[in-house]
Design brief:
mainly alpha, about 110 residues, flat
Length: about 110
């Protein structure tokens, strides 16, 4: 059976999904920026800030805040690097388990 690779169709789908992802990120960041602007003291008594809250509180030496593009770039790197690290960890774990069938069988029987 021959498969035809449709690069143009995949690119169109990729661009559509990328735009959707970026729109969702922009909306989440905008909403959180509004909360921060309406109540600038919201983070004062909080010990555990989310990554987005940290990005919203960062100031440059001149006192200016990160722009929307700066925040989007940092958040996207954080999101995608997390996936990459997770995928590498899972791949390595599966490889090691494949080298030790007795441990792989234990893992398999615990998950049934």
């Amino acid at each position: 059976r021959k498969y035809k690779l449709n690069l143009k169709g995949n690119r169109v789908l990729f661009m559509k999904l990328r735009k959707r992802f970026l729109d969702i990120n922009r909306k989440i960041i905008s909403n959180r920026m509004q909360v921060h602007k309406q109540n600038p003291d919201i983070f004062e008594n909080t010990k555990n800030l989310s990554f987005l809250d940290v990005l919203l509180t960062i100031k440059y030496e001149d006192g200016s805040s990160l722009t929307m593009d700066d925040i989007m770039e940092e958040a996207n790197v954080f999101i995608f690097e997390g996936h990459d690290t997770t995928a590498s960890g899972i791949s390595w774990s599966l490889f090691i388990l494949s080298q030790h069938p007795e441990h792989m069988q234990k893992c398999y029987s615990r998950n049934l």
